[in-house]
Amino acid sequence: MKIVVNLDVMMAKRKMSLSELAQKVDITMANLSILKNNKARAIRFSTLEAICAALDCQPGDILEFVPDEEES
Fold first, then answer.
1. Element (H, E) at 69
2. pLDDT tens across the length of the chain (72 residues)
C-alpha cells in the first residue's frame, strides 16, 4: 500500500504554477516539488492545511490511498 500525492492534478485544475503555490503556502519550491513528485515521506498537517487553503480543496483531493495488488 502507498499514499499517492495528486498535487499536480489539483494545481492543474486550479491553473496554479509550482512557484505561485510555493509563495502562497510559504514553502520552498524544492520541498513542494518533492511532495508533488511523490518523493516525500511525510507532510505536516499545517503544510497540508495551507496547501488545501491555497488550492481551495480537501486533503482527500490531494492524497490518495492505493492498496497493493494481490499476487495471484
1. none
2. 699 999 999 999 999 999 999 999 999 999 999 999 999 999 999 999 999 999 999 999 999 999 988 654
